[in-house]
Automatic annotation (TrEMBL):
The lineage of its organism: Bacteria, Bacillati, Actinomycetota, Actinomycetes, Pseudonocardiales. The chain crosses the membrane at residues 12-37. It comes from Pseudonocardia alni (Amycolata alni). One of its GO terms (biological process) is fatty acid metabolic process. The keyword Nuclease does not apply. Residues 195-263 form the 3-hydroxyacyl-CoA dehydrogenase C-terminal domain. GO terms for molecular function: NAD+ binding; oxidoreductase activity, acting on the CH-OH group of donors, NAD or NADP as acceptor. Coiled coil: none annotated. SUPFAM superfamilies: 6-phosphogluconate dehydrogenase C-terminal domain-like, NAD(P)-binding Rossmann-fold domains. Pathway: Lipid metabolism; butanoate metabolism. Belongs to the 3-hydroxyacyl-CoA dehydrogenase family. Keywords: Membrane, Oxidoreductase, Transmembrane, Transmembrane helix. Residues 18-190 form the 3-hydroxyacyl-CoA dehydrogenase NAD binding domain. The keyword Membrane applies. This is 3-hydroxyacyl-CoA dehydrogenase.
Amino acid sequence: MSAPGTPGGAGAAAGVGTVAVVGTGVVGVGWTALFLARGLHVRAFDPAPGAEDRLRADLAALGPFPGHDGPLPVANLVFAGSAADAAGPAGFVQENGPEREDLKHTLLAELDSAAAPGVVLASSSSGLLPTTIARGAARHPERVLVGHPFNPPQVIPLVEVVPGERTAESAVEAALAFYTALGKRPVRLRAEVPGHLANRLQAALWQEAYSLVERGVATVADVDAAISHGPGLRWAVLGPFANQHLSGGPGGLAHILEHLGPPTERWWRDLGQVTLTPELAATLVDGVRDELGDLDGSALAARRDSVLAALLEAKSRTELP
């Protein structure tokens, strides 16, 4: 797909020089920071009152992130008067609206009418199916797909690229090339499923974590410690299959499946099924409060992101799959 909107003197990613960021909440702020840091021009829009002031304040408050240290080039940021105004001159559109089908359809209709035909409309939706989202784009549903980042987008490399039933292969290839040029690690899904890939994997872990707390097997702090000081350390370097393979010694994954497969199947059958009752929700919230105490959430997130940046830097210097 062609990518108009490359202003003179701007940086470019896979031929794109101007990006529309529609929706400037937490995810939109992260995308905007990343695009600016990579030398792109950004046309942002959000209908909420005071959205421009909040966006600029949030950008100013961001600390360093991988590939960028210092003030962001906010001179390359324009806050548009509408979603259509943001999308019209853009070579790529990153939509970050609320997770509601009706709002997505209204927003996609406006973007589809304004953006040039060759421009990808990528939704940051964390769970809605791209086929569903594309129903709002009557003119060109073939350029609609999900480009779901992992939060915060300016730090975490993963982007899930999910085509819908009518998405053109050229749109998928354009999105993969664009995100890769930004330094992201896009993963293409071969089928649509609610929640895409990473959120479904997280949901499986949360299900058992919530169940263990509900059954009194462990506290919230115990669960967090078990992951962050245990398998989570390895998962940050290699994925679950590669790590399992390494656990098998010379026999690799085949050895693990032969010897630990049967007990693992028994564990699967014993995993808890939970319902988020008000009582369980209160237990989880109280558990996090007890675990973190008076720690400021923003300060803790900044510390986390600093460690993530160091980890990503180390990974960039190490040959890994």
